[in-house]
Design goal:
7 strands, alpha+beta, 2 domains, two-stranded antiparallel ribbon, five-stranded antiparallel sheet
Length: about 325
């Protein structure tokens, strides 16, 4: 007897503005996940059966991770209930949960953003499909992405968000219990310099940020609020992107999973000392960064009924 088909439903908050409609539905993951906008909410419907209960959030999480690499927003999930359906074609036709209509976005801005919302969601889907194997094959990348996502949700100017961002950086750049601050700061500053980020400035910033992270986790409550905490978000985002690009290489993927992180860190260290290796690494990164260049406008500006507006919807 075949398992009964189920429609599992979530609401994704913060991925696109609630006032913005989707001109058409968006399919992800080869027809297994359907995104649709209803009543001001972005619904994610997953096709499955009863055995998927409790597992569906894991299927959606990587999309949210990827969105944080190209968006300033930090989307979140709610819901997760299921309802039986008769066929795949019924996915998204049965309601899950209540609906509400958002307010606050000028009508003129919402209308303009609607022209690009489905392309934005599709862009996230393409990133996911291209790089998700890299994530699943490299546990340290998965950890880094997960902590970065938590940092975005908690906001890096909060202590919890700041610490999560620093843990994400440690997952990328550290491979042992000693000299963590120096290795993290030195390697990250070098790798970020290949993305046109000033290396000496980022090196000093990262050392300072790591010192503050250490004081926080050891219970020092005397630290004043640091207006430069936003830098760690930018450093972490860019670092994860670069590691995704490098680890997608077929040559590196042939290295055993247990040795892959050690090898790529050695490659970074050697490139600091060898100009040819440095140039080769930069060419590879520059080519890969094109994948992460947003293909839709990031800022929407205009004059509405109630005055000028400037909206950053994602």
């Amino acid at each position: 007897m075949e398992n009964q088909l189920f429609q599992w439903g979530f609401v994704i908050r913060g991925l696109i503005p609630s006032e913005v409609k989707l001109k058409r539905k968006v399919w992800l993951k080869r027809g297994e996940i359907l995104l649709d906008k209803k009543g001001g909410k972005l619904h994610a419907y997953l096709l499955g059966d009863e055995s998927d209960a409790g597992k569906n959030e894991e299927k959606l999480a990587p999309y949210l991770w990827m969105s944080c690499l190209v968006s300033n927003k930090s989307p979140d999930l709610e819901g997760g209930g299921g309802v039986s359906i008769g066929a795949k074609e019924e996915l998204g036709t049965k309601p899950v949960g209540s609906m509400s209509i958002g307010i606050g976005l000028p009508d003129e801005a919402a209308a303009e953003i609607e022209h690009h919302a489905h392309k934005f969601l599709g862009f996230i889907g393409k990133l996911h499909d291209k790089y998700i194997d890299v994530v699943s094959e490299n546990r340290f990348i998965e950890i880094a992405l997960d902590y970065f996502y938590e940092a975005k949700k908690k906001f890096v100017h909060s202590d919890e968000g700041f610490i999560s961002a620093m843990i994400s950086m440690e997952a990328l750049y550290n491979e042992g219990p000693s000299d963590i601050k120096y290795k993290l700061s030195h390697r990250a500053a070098f790798l970020l310099s290949l993305c046109e980020i000033e290396p000496i400035e980022s090196f000093e910033n990262l050392k300072d940020l790591y010192n503050k992270r250490s004081k926080l986790v050891h219970g020092d409550v005397s630290l004043t609020r640091d207006p430069d905490r936003h830098l760690i978000s930018n450093y972490t985002r860019k670092s994860i992107i670069v590691f995704l690009i490098l680890l997608r290489s077929e040559v590196r993927r042939k290295i055993g999973k247990n040795k892959r992180k050690i090898n790529i860190l050695k490659e970074i260290d050697y490139a600091m000392l060898d100009e040819d290796k440095r140039k080769s690494l930069k060419r590879e990164i520059s080519k890969g960064l094109k994948d992460f260049k947003l293909t839709v406008p990031r800022i929407f500006e205009g004059k509405g009924e109630n005055g000028d507006y400037r909206i950053i919807p994602w």
